[in-house]
Amino acid sequence: MAANRSATADRRARIEEMRRAEQARERRNRLITIGVSSVVVLGLVGFGTFVLMKKSDEQDRKDAAAKAPIAAEKAWDAKKLGRNHVETAVKYDMKPPVGGDHNPVWMNCDGVVYDKKIADVNAVHSLEHGAVWVTYNKKASQADVKKLADKVGKTKYSLMSPVDDQTGAIMLSAWGKQVTVDGADDPRVDAFFTKYVQGPQTPEPGAACTGGIGADGQGGTGMGQ
C-alpha cells in the first residue's frame, strides 16, 4: 500500500511539474506574441508617421513655391482682362495672350502638345480654365522643345504650341501671368507650373480641359461657363 501511495504521489508530482512547464511555455509564447505585435505596430505607426511627415513636407514645399515670386514674371490685372465669349477675332495687347475676350470653345489642354499654330481665342479660354500654355518659336532648341513637350504631356491642365512671332524663344502663360525662360531646364519652368496649373489666378477652377477643340479643329461643343 505504501508503495502504491508513493507511486501515486510521484505521478501527481510529475503531472504538476508538466502542468507548470506548460503554463510557463504559454506565458513565454504570449510574451513573445505581444512583443512581436508591439514591434509591428510601432513599425507601422513609425512608417505612417514618416509618410505623413513626408507628405506634409512636400505640401509645405509646394505651398512655399506657390507663394514665391517668379523672377522677371509679367502680370496683368485680372479684373481688367475681358472674359466675354465672342465668335469674332480678338486683338490682344500681348503675345501670346494671357487673357481677354475669347471663343466659347477652349483648346483641349489635358496635357496636349500641338505641333502647329493654334488659335489664340481658343487657347485663352483654356487659360481661363486654369491651364498653363507653353509656347516657343524657331529660336528654341529642339532639345528644349522635346523636354517641354514631355513635361506638358505628363501634366493635366497644360498645353503647348508654336508661336512664331512671340518675342522670347520659350514663354509660359497663365491667366494674367507670363514669363520668358532661358530653356527647358530653367527652374522657373517648374515654378510656373507649380504656381499656376489650376492656381489661384484661375477664373474658372475645375472647369474642363477636355471636350473642347483639338488640333484638327474638331471637338466637342465645349461651351464654357
Automatic annotation (TrEMBL):
This is DUF3105 domain-containing protein. The chain crosses the membrane at residues 31-52. The keyword Transmembrane helix applies. Residues 203-225 are annotated as: Disordered. Residues 209-225 have a biased composition (Gly residues). It comes from Streptomyces tanashiensis. It holds the Pfam family DUF3105. It comes from the Bacteria. Keywords: Membrane, Transmembrane, Transmembrane helix.
